[in-house]
Amino acid sequence: MKANEFIDGIYVYFNCFDGSKITVKVTGFKDDIVYGVSKHGTHWCQISKIEPIPLTPDILEKNGFVVESRHCLGNPLQYCVLVDGLWIDITGENYFEGKLEYAHQLQHALRLCGIEKEIIL
To answer: Which domain does 16 fall in, by range?
Structure first.
């Protein structure tokens, strides 16, 4: 992941010293260190040890998004999500960051649209 992708509130995986991964909500970033919170407390991690969380149909469903195959943003049969009345293409090129493959990319896209929604993983 790139430093400019780390904004407060996005979810990522921190790779721990013992080889395990934890899901963390980012709370800050400074000098190649990312800070965050999980259900286990507060954490920090070097940027090189952070992974994005893949955006899955399960995550979309848990958050109440409607996923549909339809003509979206000029591309037939693309998968889209309905978010507060706005269709967002999650499989093809679009005007956010390209293909939305990860949870943090969806979070960025929602913010760009002015939609404040807490994502549940």
So the answer is: 3-52
